[in-house]
Design goal:
Layout: H1 2-12, E1 68-69, E2 72-73, H2 88-106, E3 117-120, H3 122-136, H4 139-151, H5 161-169, E4 175-178, E5 183-187, H6 198-213, H7 225-252, H8 273-280, H9 286-303, H10 311-315, E6 338-341, E7 348-349, H11 352-366, E8 397-407, E9 412-420, H12 423-439, E10 443-444, E11 451-455, E12 460-468, E13 471-477, H13 483-486, H14 551-561
Parallel strand pairs: 3-5
Antiparallel strand pairs: 1-2, 4-5, 6-8, 7-8, 8-9, 9-13, 10-11, 11-12, 12-13
């Protein structure tokens, strides 16, 4: 679904999803926009900003003046009345002054002026998302998406994957910037924009600034989930980082006016945590902070022409530009009843370390902390309050390719091979995936050691998991009998060792032509909320020390995806 995702991501924005959470068991309120990073040059703005005149007179020659935008200096008061929402005139004034503040932090000026501001209803917003998916997805592409999401244990085999994907993308009201048409929009049910957070506006204005200097659209050309998220992490984490600096100035009273931070509304329901957490990665990349610490805003500028190739490089800045993936080639071993399907121009998807982490973490949030398949959830939500996608269960990732298959009845299957640093890493991934299957309703098939069957409302399928040295092969099909039809050499290990199948299931012929599919690459997003999680250290049952999951875990879940206010960034 690469092409669909590209257009959706463009249409629904370069956005910011506030990525702060708290340590399980700790009451640690954190401002939702705060990002880490060194102090600013003078504790207020960057050294690049021009010192405004005392009377805030407009500069005689505004070209190249950083910190002044269309009549407003970054430290100039602006007259708005947020209590009754913002009309267009107020929104324009606030946007100009906020843009001047953004310039003073990001050290770039709006050479092309500000994009126009528009509003769109929530119903229209969802209709637009659904229309784009419908218009840009082929029948083969839809089959591929059904196959890949089922293999990822993210959307059930009995669920329409594209419909679930639309629900996930349109779940929250939003503000967004659309670079292909150069405008910024707010999703609202009224002519006025209510619930606006000034830091949200700042985030979107960072994207507008990026678009005037860099080819931000290049991220949508990335063909796989992993490549897209790695590139998008530069675009989104840049905006998130400077949104954090903006909010730090709000908290310290450094700006001319108090920042507009309305009370949070009722958080909307997260329709699919695995998809949401997959998207969330792009707002939490440590690479941006490390780059800023080393070389400031100019070093960040250089990343836009040199995106990381994998999310592993975004998770570990010291691996950026040096990390090498393993060579994975999977021969098409499907029988005559099956064919490979694809969505786009690449025949496989690479999920990547961040995507695999997201699918493993999802059960914790889906169940309000009562179920957990990873060893320690605190590896994901560490002390410093920023999500860490480098959990032990995925840390040894060296590459993966996921292929989709369909038969004439439009039943689907998949072949997913992954490579790992060591056999221990591979075994840890395989065992965690098995725990995830059990959470989704899978049970060991009678007579087999590595084959699971599902018979639930969402999943009705079979899956075989084989670890061989540093490789893990996952094959899915509608039934156990059809697993070998999807991939002939899949190893179905019998509990009777005399009858066990000795095939490893690791194909060795390349067939990586054609199409893609991929990712859920658009950034859903919203501001974070405060809260706490349980003292659970990541045990299988995830139970908390205070007798079970409660509001604390829910609040932390909301904090992670920033779903706690109505004007969410998408």
């Amino acid at each position: 679904m690469r092409r669909v995702v590209q257009l959706l991501a463009v249409a629904v924005a370069l956005v910011a999803l506030g990525a702060l959470a708290v340590v399980p068991g700790a009451a640690a309120p954190v401002d939702d926009d705060t990002a880490g990073g060194p102090a600013l040059a003078d504790g207020h703005v960057g050294e690049c900003a021009v010192t405004p005149p005392s009377d805030h007179a407009d500069p005689a020659n505004p070209d190249g003046v950083i910190g002044w935008v269309e009549g407003y200096w970054y430290n100039e008061p602006v007259s708005v009345t947020p209590d009754d929402g913002f009309n267009q005139s107020e929104l324009d004034r606030l946007a100009r002054r906020t843009a001047a503040q953004v310039e003073s932090l990001r050290c770039l000026d709006y050479v092309d002026g500000l994009p126009p501001l528009q509003t769109i209803s929530r119903d229209q917003y969802r209709e637009n998302v659904a229309g784009q998916v419908e218009n840009q997805t082929t029948a083969e592409g839809e089959l591929y998406e059904n196959a890949q999401y089922a293999a990822r244990m993210t959307i059930g085999s009995e669920v329409d994957a594209l419909e679930a994907f639309v629900d996930a993308q349109a779940a929250f009201p939003a503000a967004f910037y659309r670079p292909d048409q150069d405008y910024m929009a707010f999703v609202t049910d009224d002519e006025t924009v209510e619930g606006l957070r000034q830091s949200t506006l700042a985030h979107e204005l960072v994207h507008a600034l990026q678009d005037q200097y860099f080819d931000v659209g290049a991220i949508f050309e990335k063909p796989t989930n992993d490549q897209y998220l790695a590139a998008a992490s530069v675009v989104e984490s840049d905006a998130q980082f400077f949104q954090g600096q903006y909010t730090a100035n709000c908290n310290s009273g450094s700006w001319a006016d108090d920042c507009i931070t309305p009370a949070r509304g009722t958080p909307p329901e997260i329709p699919n945590w695995a998809i949401a957490l997959n998207q969330q990665f792009q707002y939490t990349s440590p690479l941006i902070e490390a780059t800023y610490e080393e070389g400031g805003t100019e070093a960040i500028d250089n990343l836009f022409g040199n995106f990381p190739e994998t999310t592993t490089e975004s998770i570990y800045p010291d691996r950026f530009g040096e990390f090498e993936t393993a060579d994975i080639t999977v021969e098409d071993q499907s029988g005559s009843a099956w064919r490979r399907v694809q969505s786009g121009n690449l025949s496989y998807n690479t999920i990547g370390q961040a995507g695999m982490t997201a699918m493993f973490i999802a059960p914790y949030y889906e169940t309000d902390g009562s179920t957990n398949v990873v060893s320690d959830i605190r590896e994901f939500i560490p002390q410093r309050g920023v999500l860490d996608y480098g959990i032990p269960e995925t840390d040894g990732w060296r590459g993966d390719k996921l292929y989709g298959y369909a038969d004439d009845a439009n039943e689907t299957g998949a072949v997913w091979e992954s490579a790992w640093d060591s056999s221990t890493d591979a075994e840890e991934f395989a065992s965690t995936y098995e725990a995830l299957m059990e959470h989704r309703g899978g049970t060991l098939a009678s007579g087999y050691e590595n084959v699971y069957t599902f018979d639930t409302e969402e999943y009705d399928m079979a899956a075989a998991v084989t670890q061989t040295d540093e490789r893990v092969l996952i094959v899915t099909a509608p039934t156990v009998e059809e697993l070998t039809g999807v991939h002939e050499s899949v190893s179905l290990q019998s509990t009777d060792t005399d009858d066990s199948d000795s095939d490893t299931g690791n194909g060795d012929e390349s067939d990586d032509s054609g199409g893609d599919e991929s990712d859920d690459g658009d950034g859903s997003d919203a501001e974070t909320d405060d809260g706490e999680t349980s003292d659970d250290g990541g045990s299988d049952d995830g139970s908390s020390d205070d007798g079970g999951p409660g509001f604390g875990i829910l609040a932390a879940a909301v904090a992670v995806l920033g779903a706690g206010f109505w004007l969410a960034r998408r």
